[in-house]
Recover the amino acids of this structure.
């Protein structure tokens, strides 16, 4: 079964507030691939492990019917309470048991979630529900992140990575799939026609508060919170203080850019 890391309502609310939608370059990569495979008029799109719906809403701008699904009831509740779109619906269900008929899905996606799934069980469902000629797009942003703010970008990134490395000591073992650029997921995808792109770069507009909120939303931080709440809170406070000092500003609403690298596994089922 899937690894469940985002169950608490409070965590889901933080996730909704601070997790960013797929960046423009990742969006462009996926849409260009689908155009090449002639999937631009997809009737049914599934967004598996949708969390609070950031990727689902992007898909809804391009496709007729989009269903977001997640194993976490709290995440789905956040998604439903977010921006409403008439062609989007949400379901609570595991990635390994999709409630759809065989060969009924035109496009199946997953944004920064597939490393939590049971890979074999998920891929069996991918093979079952995706129709012949249908496609998959399974992506994640990597841990290779940088911060940009004027001439202090290098020092800012160094500090960010120091705090991120401290948090990663509390990571679940499934994070290794991200560290390996989804190699295991790519190899498990049961479509001969497939590719893995590891060099998609996006710049995400954020604020100091947003960067700190992103750290708070991460699964390593939430694990740290459970084991030592005071130390976890102190780490976040110190991270914010360090950022403000390096940037030479006082407001946590000061804009900053988060540079991220995405990995995307794309595939098309044989006709």
């Amino acid at each position: 079964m899937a690894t469940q890391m985002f169950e608490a309502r409070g965590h889901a609310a933080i996730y909704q507030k601070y997790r960013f939608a797929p960046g423009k370059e990742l969006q462009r990569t996926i849409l260009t691939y689908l155009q090449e495979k002639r999937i631009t008029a997809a009737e049914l799109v599934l967004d598996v492990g949708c969390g609070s719906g950031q990727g689902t809403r992007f898909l809804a701008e391009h496709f007729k019917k989009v269903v977001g699904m997640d194993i976490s009831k709290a995440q789905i509740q956040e998604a439903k309470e977010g921006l409403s779109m008439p062609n989007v619906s949400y379901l609570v269900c595991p990635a390994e048991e999709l409630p759809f008929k065989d060969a009924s899905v035109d496009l199946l996606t997953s944004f920064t979630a597939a490393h939590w799934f049971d890979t074999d069980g998920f891929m069996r469902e991918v093979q079952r529900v995706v129709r012949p000629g249908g496609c998959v797009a399974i992506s994640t942003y990597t841990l290779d992140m940088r911060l940009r703010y004027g001439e202090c970008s290098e020092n800012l990134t160094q500090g960010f990575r120091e705090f991120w490395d401290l948090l990663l000591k509390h990571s679940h073992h499934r994070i290794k799939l991200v560290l390996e650029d989804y190699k295991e997921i790519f190899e498990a995808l049961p479509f001969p026609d497939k590719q893995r792109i590891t060099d998609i770069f996006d710049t995400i507009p954020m604020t100091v508060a947003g960067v700190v909120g992103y750290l708070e939303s991460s699964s390593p931080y939430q694990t740290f919170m459970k084991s030592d709440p005071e130390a976890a809170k102190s780490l976040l406070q110190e991270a914010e203080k360090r950022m403000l000092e390096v940037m030479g500003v006082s407001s946590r609403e000061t804009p900053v850019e988060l540079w991220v690298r995405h990995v995307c596994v794309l595939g098309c089922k044989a006709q």
